[in-house]
Design brief:
The protein is mainly alpha-helical. It folds into 4 domains: about 180 residues, Rossmann fold (3-Layer(aba) Sandwich), CATH 3.40.50.620; about 110 residues, Glutamyl-tRNA Synthetase, Domain 3 (Glutamyl-tRNA Synthetase, domain 3), CATH 3.90.800.10; about 45 residues, Orthogonal Bundle (Helicase, Ruva Protein, domain 3); about 90 residues, Arc Repressor Mutant, subunit A (Orthogonal Bundle), CATH 1.10.10.350. The protein is about 45% helix and about 10% strand. The protein starts with a strand and ends with a helix.
């Protein structure tokens, strides 16, 4: 295999969907697997759909995802510019070349004339009217008009587009790495616009020209572009680049969790999960869409989850580091069918990665939340809290939401637990336990547990008779992590104080 060069080429028309992130990821994994390079190219030819801030958002999103590019608008290489709006004149040159060689033509039709043509064709019984070899002869273009009239229109700066001249009854074959051979007859294809009246190329011309000039070896993109692939094959042929044409791989869709169809933002809003990697603020109305980053997801967990949406490693392994993904990834194991998004599985991935993190790193993240809530705690103490809670947490924020009692004594107590477990004699048992705990010199978890169980044994009590009340006094809750670990971490003074407050507050 010659040098592998792939590209991710998003359009700055809005926030980056996780489907786009997966495309970038698969390109990245493929490039790194083969010691190749990945290029970030901004495809902003559709100026009418340009959204302010979208380009920066794309770059920030990919940075958070850990997808690093060898060449981009920031990390410039030898094949720039890497923003299509900076390459306008390059595309014009090739559009004119196509016209000169009879493979494209000027079209001067107005929108009204195009509408009239479609209306006429529908009345004639054509269900899907097209601008093609049949209709072009009745339209205003450089094929139907005289050479002098064409020159006159051009000299008068009359608006025009450039259309590809689709040949009649030719079979266009394209081999897709994932889907095999795809064959389309040109009679089923229309004369697509390849250069617009605003002086910008359409996606079709621009991406072919750029892929050739940037020496792209493999085009790995979403399946929504598969219907356009035969047109791109023809453009390679018409421009004399057939032998340099890249290999194509069209990725399956990420499907909504329920029902059919592509995963959308609407699905996320409806079912309560993000579809963007990081926060997006709509510049038009200020609406905020939180991303996986703001929801507390670990980057590696997000990437791991995304990698398995469409790719099967061929083993039972589910947890992959980025390096493991690089070594394992193969386009041969990318499926043809769409992959259903599973948000519960996404949370499971985050849980696994959170558990694998060391307590100090988790403490650093939890300290940020504590500071936001005006709580100042020793780093070592916070790390110990994280160590106790991480097996029960999905996100770092869960440690705050579910473990607030570590940082401040409870002011309320779970009513259900009080009703079921706080009996008439509970205060006496708890008071006697308190006296015993006060006598422990080494207030370790094991010593607290030994003394607790000894008290139960001495008083012929079951665990359920006192443990819930003890937990209620320390945490205000009816359930949680090991109570003896909690008491040890809180320390003897705090534990005893909380027991006293509960005895004076809780009434059965």
């Amino acid at each position: 295999m010659s040098e592998v060069r792939v590209r991710f080429a998003p359009s700055p028309t809005g926030p980056l969907h996780i489907g786009g992130v997966r495309t970038a990821l698969y390109n990245y994994l493929f490039a790194k697997k083969h010691q190749g390079k990945i290029i970030l190219r901004i495809e902003d030819t559709d100026q009418s759909r340009f959204v302010k801030g979208a380009e920066n958002y794309i770059i920030e999103s990919l940075n958070w995802c850990g997808i690093k590019f060898d060449e981009s608008i920031i990390n410039k290489g030898d094949y720039g510019p890497y923003r299509q709006s900076d390459r306008k004149e390059i595309y014009r040159e090739y559009a004119e070349k196509l016209i000169e060689e009879g493979n494209a033509y000027y079209a001067f039709d107005t929108s009204e004339e195009l509408d009239e043509m479609r209306s006429r064709m529908k009345k004639a019984g054509v269900p899907s009217p097209q601008y093609n070899s049949i209709t072009r002869s009745s339209m205003k273009n450089s094929i139907s008009l005289s050479e002098d009239e064409v020159k006159s229109r051009l000299n008068n700066d009359e608006k025009y587009v450039i259309r590809i001249k689709m040949p009649r009854n030719e079979e266009v074959k394209i081999h897709d790495v994932i889907r095999g051979w795809v064959v389309v007859n040109t009679n089923n294809m229309d004369d697509k616009v390849i250069f617009k009246s605003d002086g910008m190329p359409t996606y079709h011309l621009a991406n072919v020209v750029d892929d050739y000039l940037m020496k792209i070896s493999h085009v790995i993109r979403g399946e929504e572009w598969l219907p356009s692939a035969p047109l791109h094959v023809l453009l390679y042929k018409f421009l004399g680049w057939g032998k340099e044409m890249p290999k194509f791989a069209h990725l399956p869709l990420i499907l909504k969790p329920d029902g059919n169809g592509k995963l959308s933002k609407r699905d996320g809003d409806r079912l309560g999960f993000p579809v963007f990697p990081i926060k997006w603020i709509n510049p038009d109305n200020g609406d905020v869409s939180l991303g996986y980053k703001e929801q507390g997801y670990i980057t590696e967990a997000f990437i791991n989850m995304l990698s398995l949406l469409g790719w099967n490693p061929g083993t039972t392994q589910e947890i992959f580091s980025m390096n493991e993904l690089i070594q394992s990834f193969s386009l041969d194991r990318v499926g043809k069918a769409g992959a259903k998004f599973d948000f519960d599985k996404t949370k499971w991935f985050n849980q696994q990665y959170l558990r694998a993190k060391n307590k100090e790193d988790l403490a650093n993240e939890l300290q940020i939340i504590l500071k936001e809530n005006n709580i100042k705690m020793d780093d070592k103490f916070v790390a110990s809290v994280c160590n106790q809670l991480k097996e029960r947490a999905t996100f770092v924020k869960d440690m705050w939401l579910e473990g607030a009692y570590y940082f401040s004594a409870p002011t309320t107590y779970d009513e259900k637990t009080i009703r079921k477990k706080w009996k008439e004699d509970t205060p006496r048992f708890l008071s006697e336990l308190k006296i015993r705990l006060e006598k422990i010199s080494d207030f370790s978890s094991i010593n607290i547990e030994i003394e607790f169980k000894k008290y139960l044994e001495d008083n012929d009590l079951g665990m359920g008779r006192l443990l819930p009340a003890f937990r209620l006094a320390l945490t205000g809750l009816g359930m949680g992590p090991s109570l003896f670990d909690i008491a040890s971490l809180l320390g003897k003074t705090e534990t005893i104080m909380r027991m006293e407050v509960a005895l004076n507050t809780i009434k059965s």
